[in-house]
């Protein structure tokens, strides 16, 4: 579009300039804390407490990371986080997929009640049920194992709900045709439903990965020894052992925790962003 | 329950118990780890119980102590309500504003959306540590920035009237990007013709927003209202890491309160269960309220 330089154009230019500057400001606001996390973890303790703070470390050092590894048995925490997260994702998928399929594709007595129960469970916070689940776990003598961090999350109401939505959108004729060909129910699930619901399945797995990897409250309550604690609880131990807070060491611990999630996000960000948006309008 | 108004059997001729077999594991998990604990929680709230000695039925004593005798529960409740209102208000307001502003599809806007979404995936624990460091009184970034413009340093998380707002900021910062994406998606789902018609009529921007856009996205805003309120009432991790409820009990919230009484104060499980039941009751009332009253005013296409 070619137009003469009028007052309107000038005003538009100024507005878009301000808009651009504000956008840069937003970027700083949302990305700078991550930058601050990263560079702090490479600083010496001495440099971390100088005032005013340095924006670029004067001498890069891995000392904080070395301290994290020497102070705690990090591999143990890491191992716990990985075992819990993978188990939760696997069990939730095995339990959730058939349930979502049945709720999406069959009509049977009691289905309405079950759907209502799934929706209700979605609203119930674990921050309330923890008291009585804790009593259950202590009676089972599970508190010094990883089981209390895995088993209670066997069914994800949110996952079942989202997968059901996806399964409901598969056209009926495809399933009818498969049934005419004598396909088993298992085959219909694995060959038709799961491929069709790929993106929902990815969203569900991603959110259970994030939820489980990042969980803090539940393992805090449900573990009675360091042996069974995940990474999220390890960082606290970096804090207590020192007189003053050694921020580089704490940031180094957080770096180790945040890194896997950031890497996954960087690799899949386009898919994740569109999956989240899609889920919002459903 | 037949969504498309046609049978969902699709030629299925197998035994009738197959669907029950498919839902059984999920329902069992939900029954054991969600619904039974919930019922048991309400049951225990009528007892004096510390996990070691026998339960003693005390009727409504726990509730009386919570609401009328001890002052700390009402303080925690008030903090939670203030926190939740602030988080819901600012998150929804900013999500709508930023969505309108970042609506145009360009790589730069997409990049900003991605950057804003990143904190959502990070553990609240890490977020809380990063921000505690930024809020740090002695060598934190914010006080350094204040020093640049000659303002005397603030005590942030150590200031009993400021601390709760610091936690609000962190919560909004962490989840804004996620809610922004939902609002953006719903803006994109508005039929083009409607907006173009308004533009042809030369409708002023504000009126276009209030009369056309807002009603069209109100189902999503309504959904956000429920989800953000519920998640705000469950706040724990950020408080535990950043202030541990302090200074004093200025940032004590319902979940830190329940956790403290259940696990630290001589395991007063019955009392903590009563506090948990109050939280449960509030969440139920809010959910019903939203569906009944706000749901009616929401525009569905």
How would you describe this structure in keywords?
A: 282 residues, mainly alpha, MetI-like fold, 14 helices, 75% helix, B: 301 residues, two-stranded antiparallel ribbon, 12 helices, 70% helix, 1% strand
Oligomer: heterodimer
Which two chains touch over the largest interface? A-B, 95 and 102 residues
CATH class of chain B: Mainly Alpha
Report, as a whole number of angstroms, the end-to-end distance of chain B. Answer: 20 Å
Structural class of chain B: mainly alpha
Ends of chain A: how far apart? Answer: 38 Å
- What's the CATH C level of the domain at 72-241 in chain A? Mainly Alpha
- According to DSSP, the number of beta strands of chain B is 2
Count of DSSP H/I helices of chain B: 12
Largest sheet, strands/sense/barrel of chain A: none
Mean pLDDT score of chain A: 88
Question: Biggest sheet of chain B, in brief?
Answer: 2 strands, antiparallel
CATH architecture of chain B: Orthogonal Bundle
Q: What is the count of helical runs of chain A? A: 14
Beta percentage of chain B is under 5%
The secondary-structure element order of chain A is HHHHHHHHHHHHHH
Number of domains of chain B: 1
How does this structure look, described?
The complex is a heterodimer of chains A (282) and B (301). Chain A is mostly helical and 282 residues long. Chain A has a domain at 72-241: MetI-like (MetI-like fold). Helix content of chain A is 75%, strand content 0%. Chain A has 14 helices and no strands. In chain A, α4 runs antiparallel to α13 and α5 crosses α8. Chain A is flat. With 301 residues, chain B is mainly alpha-helical. Chain B has one domain (47-297): Orthogonal Bundle (MetI-like fold), CATH 1.10.3720.10. In chain B, 70% of the residues lie in helices and 1% in strands. Chain B has 12 helices and 2 strands, in the order αββααααααααααα. Chain B has helices at residues 18-44, 61-69, 72-101, 107-121, 124-135, 141-148, 163-188, 192-200, 205-233, 237-242, 254-263, 269-297; strands at 47-48, 56-57. In chain B, strands 1-2 form a two-stranded antiparallel sheet. In chain B, α1 crosses α12 (269-297). Chains A and B meet through α1, α4, α5, α6 and α8 of A and α1, α4, α5, α6 and α7 of B.
């Amino acid at each position: 579009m070619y137009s003469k330089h009028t007052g309107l154009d000038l005003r538009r230019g100024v507005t878009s300039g301000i808009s651009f500057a504000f956008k840069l400001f937003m970027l700083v606001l949302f990305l700078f804390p991550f930058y601050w996390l990263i560079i702090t973890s490479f600083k010496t303790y001495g440099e971390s407490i100088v005032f005013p703070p340095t924006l670029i470390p004067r001498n890069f050092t891995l000392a904080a990371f070395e301290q994290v590894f020497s102070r705690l048995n990090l591999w143990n925490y890491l191992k716990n986080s990985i075992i819990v997260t993978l188990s939760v994702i696997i069990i939730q998928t095995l339990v959730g997929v058939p349930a979502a399929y049945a709720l999406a594709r069959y009509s049977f007595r009691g289905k309405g009640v079950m759907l209502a129960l799934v929706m209700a469970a979605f609203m119930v916070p674990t921050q309330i049920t923890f008291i009585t689940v804790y009593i259950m776990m202590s009676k089972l003598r599970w508190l010094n194992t990883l089981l209390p961090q895995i088993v209670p999350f066997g069914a994800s109401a949110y996952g079942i709900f989202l997968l059901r939505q996806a399964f409901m959108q598969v056209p009926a004729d495809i399933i009818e045709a498969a049934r005419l060909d004598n396909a088993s129910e298992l085959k219909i699930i694995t060959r038709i439903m799961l491929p069709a619901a790929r993106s929902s399945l990815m969203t569900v797995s991603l959110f259970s990965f994030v939820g489980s990897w990042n969980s803090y409250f539940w393992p805090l309550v449900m573990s009675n020894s360091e042996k069974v604690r995940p990474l999220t609880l390890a960082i606290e131990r970096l804090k207590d052992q020192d007189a003053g807070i050694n921020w580089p060491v704490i940031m180094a611990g957080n770096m180790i925790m945040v890194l896997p999630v950031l890497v996954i996000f960087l690799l899949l960000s386009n898919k994740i962003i569109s999956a989240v948006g899609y889920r919002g309008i459903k | 329950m037949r969504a498309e108004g046609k049978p969902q059997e699709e030629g299925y001729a197998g035994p009738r118990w197959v669907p029950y077999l498919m839902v059984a594991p999920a329902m069992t998990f939900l029954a054991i780890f969600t619904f039974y604990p919930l019922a048991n929680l309400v049951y225990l709230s009528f007892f004096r119980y510390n996990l070691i000695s026998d339960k003693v039925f005390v009727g409504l004593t726990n509730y009386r102590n919570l609401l009328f005798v001890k002052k700390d529960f009402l303080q925690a409740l008030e903090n939670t309500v203030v926190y939740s209102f602030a988080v819901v208000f600012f998150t929804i307001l900013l999500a709508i504003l930023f969505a309108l502003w970042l609506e145009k599809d360009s790589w730069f806007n997409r990049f900003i959306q991605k950057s804003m979404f990143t904190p959502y995936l990070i553990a609240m624990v890490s977020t809380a540590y990063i921000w505690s460091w930024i809020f740090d009184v002695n060598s934190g970034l914010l006080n350094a920035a204040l020093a640049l413009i000659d303002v005397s340093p603030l005590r942030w998380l150590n200031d009993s009237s400021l601390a709760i707002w610091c936690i609000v900021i962190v919560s909004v910062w962490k989840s804004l990007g996620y809610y922004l994406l939902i609002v953006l998606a719903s803006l994109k789902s508005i039929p083009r013709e409607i907006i173009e018609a308004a533009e042809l009529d030369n409708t002023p921007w504000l009126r276009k927003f209030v009369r056309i856009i807002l009603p069209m996205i109100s189902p999503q805003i309504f959904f956000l209202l429920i989800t953000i309120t519920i998640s705000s009432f469950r706040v724990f991790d950020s408080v535990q890491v950043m202030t541990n409820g302090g200074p004093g009990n200025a940032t004590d919230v319902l979940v830190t309160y329940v956790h403290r009484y259940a696990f630290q104060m001589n395991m007063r499980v019955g009392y903590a269960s009563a506090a948990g039941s109050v939280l449960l009751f509030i969440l139920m009332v809010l959910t019903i309220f939203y569906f009944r009253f706000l749901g009616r005013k929401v525009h569905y296409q």
